[in-house]
Design brief:
Helices cover about 0% and strands about 40% of the residues. The strands form 3 sheets. The chain has a 5-stranded antiparallel β-sheet, with no helix packed on it. It has a 4-stranded antiparallel β-sheet with strand order 5-3-8-11, with no helix packed on it. A hairpin with a 2-residue loop joins strand 9 and strand 10. It is globular and about 35 Å long. About 30% of the residues are buried.
């Protein structure tokens, strides 16, 4: 995915079904040419977070940590990563906590913030996510 961001924020919204138990848990890695992780240690906010799994864990660079929402609070949750300026993006990697067989993420989308509280959809998956999404 080669997208030149018109602004500095990448939002990744992940949605799971209402009947699934659990939480949204993920680590996000945004790469530019040369495989540099653009999301590493950037400013991050989320709609909800477990105390032990705050949003900053998604961009911390440690695959043993993750961002997680509170139990039974997953529909419509999002994480937003400020890439700190206009960036050329090669690909976006998302590592979900659960294995493919146990995955509870049934859809998600990646959006670009364009300013004035407007977002542009750059990718949407409407089927069950795999543990590693590239």
């Amino acid at each position: 995915m080669n997208k030149k961001f018109v602004n500095s924020v990448l939002a990744c919204a992940m949605t799971v079904s209402t009947f699934s138990i659990g939480t949204v848990k993920a680590e996000v890695n945004v790469q530019k040419a040369g495989n540099e992780n653009l999301a590493l240690n950037q400013k991050v906010t989320a709609s909800d977070s477990e105390n032990v799994n705050p949003a900053k864990n998604a961009v911390y660079g440690d695959k043993t940590t993750h961002w997680g929402t509170n139990q039974d609070k997953a529909n419509g949750e999002y994480i937003e990563i400020d890439l700190n300026g206009i960036k050329n993006v090669k690909q976006i990697n998302i590592l979900f906590e659960r294995t493919d067989e146990n995955q509870n993420i049934l859809s998600y989308k990646i959006e670009l913030y364009e300013g004035d509280n407007k977002y542009h959809n750059v990718y949407e998956k409407t089927s069950k996510a795999k543990q590693v999404e590239v």
